[in-house]
Specification:
The chain has 91 residues and is mainly β. The chain has one helix and six strands; from the N terminus they run E-E-E-E-E-E-H. Helix content is 4%, strand content 48%. The longest helix is centred in the last third of the chain and has 4 residues.
Length: 91
């Protein structure tokens, strides 16, 4: 998992899934040319649940986020588009 902040800072971490719970450990924010620090600076816990066809709910303390699939935005990916280079099909 990673977060890019509006001021250009970058924070990454790891997560684990245990039943309906997701626990994320965040590492310190990386700024410029500093050494890679792997001591967690904090944790965040979510509970997730499927709430409908293609919809999921993430809950953390008193906040809730609903994730929903958008078929129109998946158009290129469903047709095989990838950011990484691959061998062309029609050559």
């Amino acid at each position: 998992m990673s977060v890019r902040y509006s001021d250009g800072d970058f924070q990454d971490g790891v997560y684990s899934v245990d039943g309906p719970s997701i626990t994320g450990k965040l590492y310190q924010v990386r700024k410029g040319a500093q050494a890679l620090i792997r001591d967690p600076s904090g944790t965040v816990e979510f509970r997730y649940a499927k709430v409908g066809e293609g919809e999921f709910s993430l809950q953390a303390e008193d906040s809730e986020l609903t994730l929903r699939n958008d078929d129109e935005r998946r158009f290129l990916f469903d047709r095989g588009f990838r950011w990484g280079p691959e061998t062309p099909v029609n050559r």
